[in-house]
Every structure is written in structure tokens, then in C-alpha cells.
Specification:
This protein has helices at 27-36, 61-72, 76-83, 87-99; strands at 7-13, 19-24, 51-58. It has 101 residues and is α+β, with helices and mostly antiparallel strands. Helices cover 43% and strands 21% of the residues. The protein has a domain at 7-73: GIY-YIG endonuclease (3-Layer(aba) Sandwich), CATH 3.40.1440.10. It has 4 helices and 3 strands; from the N terminus they run ββαβααα. It has a 3-stranded antiparallel sheet, sandwiched between helices.
Length: 101
């Protein structure tokens, strides 16, 4: 019997309007930890409160880690296109980045 695990890749908008991308196995708890300031060394600590802008669910940790790394390399505009699921804009922004190294 295979046990299913839950992993979430998420993007938060901080008080200063920057974005933070992370991964967790408990999305509600993790957002609460960000807002409570559980870790003073965390990027979001001085940028609270945070707002959840996007998340996706995975049962394979490797897929979640791969997406988190990919999103961390994205531009602000591309992340914002992801929030509204504008796939055409995401493709366009991906092409424009590859044409401008």
C-alpha cells in the first residue's frame, strides 16, 4: 500500500509587495507561521502580514521541489500571470527571456 503525501508550492505577497515562494506539507500552518513570525531569520519576518497569492498541490516531493525552484527564477510579471492562470502570457514571457539572455 502506497501512502499519499501532500506537498504545496506557494507564493506569498508580503507587506512591501514582494513575493516569497516556498514549499510545505501543511499550507494553512505554514502561512500562519509566516504571519506569526515564527522564524526571525525568514525573509517574510519583517514583511508581515503576508497574503497567499498562489498554491499548487503535489503528492511527489520531487515535482514540488522542481516547481519551487523554477518559480524562484521567474520574473515578477511571470508570477503575476501565474496568479491569474494566464498561460499565454507565461509562454510569451518565457520566450522573451530566452531571446534576451
Amino acid at each position: 500500500m502506497r501512502i499519499a503525501y501532500n506537498f504545496y508550492v506557494y507564493i506569498l505577497e508580503t507587506k512591501d509587495k514582494s513575493y516569497y515562494t516556498g514549499i510545505t506539507n501543511d499550507l494553512e500552518r505554514r502561512i500562519q507561521e509566516h504571519n506569526d513570525g515564527k522564524n526571525k531569520d525568514c525573509y517574510t519576518f519583517l514583511r508581515r502580514p503576508v497574503i497567499l497569492k498562489y498554491y499548487s498541490h503535489y503528492t511527489d516531493i520531487n515535482q514540488a521541489i522542481a516547481l519551487e525552484k523554477q518559480i524562484k527564477g521567474w520574473s515578477r510579471k511571470k508570477k503575476e500571470a501565474l496568479f491569474i492562470q494566464n498561460w499565454e502570457e507565461i509562454k510569451k514571457l518565457a520566450k522573451s527571456k530566452s531571446n534576451n539572455p
